[in-house]
Amino acid sequence: MLQAKVTIVGLGLMGGSLALSLRLAQRVARTPYPTHITIVDTNPATLQAAERLADVVTSDFAVGVAEAELVILATPVRTVLHLLAELAVLRPEGCMVLDLGSTKRDICAAMAALPTGFGAIGGHPMCGKETAGFSSATPDLYRDKTFVLCRNGRTTEQIETLVLNLLAIVGAQPLFLPPDVHDEMVAAISHLPYVVAGSLMRTAAGMADDRLWTVSASGFRDTARVSGTDPRMMLDILMTNKTAVLQQLQRYQAEITAVTALIEAGDEEKLAAWLVETQKDYFAYREKKG
Amino acid sequence: MLQAKVTIVGLGLMGGSLALSLRLAQRVARTPYPTHITIVDTNPATLQAAERLADVVTSDFAVGVAEAELVILATPVRTVLHLLAELAVLRPEGCMVLDLGSTKRDICAAMAALPTGFGAIGGHPMCGKETAGFSSATPDLYRDKTFVLCRNGRTTEQIETLVLNLLAIVGAQPLFLPPDVHDEMVAAISHLPYVVAGSLMRTAAGMADDRLWTVSASGFRDTARVSGTDPRMMLDILMTNKTAVLQQLQRYQAEITAVTALIEAGDEEKLAAWLVETQKDYFAYREKKG
Q: What architecture is domain B5-177?
């Protein structure tokens, strides 16, 4: 059984849900695990809400990580990068580190550059919502969700075992992927959908006709939903996964340009084939997803 | 209190849900209304399932409409157009007609061209699902949903009153719109989302990597959902609302091209502004939608 003093940095949707889940587990377990929870956040209101979830709450990163055995960085990607650099200075002897950032290539490169005493692994739980922040956090957010883990030059057996135990506690399903592969995949199934949904939202809002919303139904609601994503998180994603996102956007543009041409030409036969194929793709995805 | 012999043509999601809802109302009402329900469908399995919902079931349109006071056409748009022409021949003295088609300009023009004895109004319930067919039908599908009504040259007080009563029974909210305005609005909030979601589905499926589905979460699922829409229904929509759909596609393409350029340029300031504005648009829509 692992024992650890855990520090969660950033009490948003991901960090908050993790804290809720771990606190719940800690209370029902015979041997409390983690033994000690520290929460670091810079928002005073969030810190106050965090008090019941942690043994220590602080707005000071240096204080929060001083005694941590496992540091979990649950902030936007570029803040993770910044905090990893700080951690190398604050804890030169090393500690264990996991992050929950949305892109993994830059973060895993930064992890690999940590001093040799560190044990670090990249993480990305696939359970976003369009509503961010601690107020949207729930203890069961991770349950049965895929949790991508990215090994890098500082990944030790110890951090891997510790994190797999953590995932078992919150009920997540680990999936090991190289950072590059992860970033290409999320460009296709997360970042592209965001840009697509955001552009749709802007197009509809640009009509400046409130009757649109009365007429709109679940189709628009679902297609546009992720356009509500936190802009700060999204900016970091688009800035750190630019190449893969642009590649997917190019593939997408080719697809939508082709179907637009079929509509414009009134090419009924080819358009019908496109529609049938698209529905087939959707059903195949739903079947594989289960 | 209105009495009517109602014939529902096409027992898919819309027609089926209407039949379920009316049958339920008929059974609990002190004065049964509608007094008589006939269902017309060409699928033998569907007709068998329809038996408990109707007094008469038939695969023959001519038989089904022979004695109807109100004919409800619940088929894809171009089948509605075809059936309206047949109806003019089968019932030259006229009857009352409502349709549930997804585009309204062509249908309302065809209604206006019916013989003078007809009372006709265009309808479009805003409560689609990506799963079509009678098997997805539910008696509460229309409850609290917007039901667009389009007056035309054959709209009489009688058909309007009858249909408003029908909407009250199924719990839908009527919204009167001119056919052209309806078609422009649904191009923006229904047909564009379909093309957008379909192109996304094709782009992701084109990766031909099943690990994508393991990594994908609710964001992809919701953004891609309407790509499962019935191809036959969608083909009729795109063929009968081509101009408005192409106009929305053009506006959308301009939007996504602009944000792609910001990502490509790494223009952090403008990209951040775009992300913030997009989230604002989404929240404003959610607030207005309630």
A: 3-Layer(aba) Sandwich (3.40)
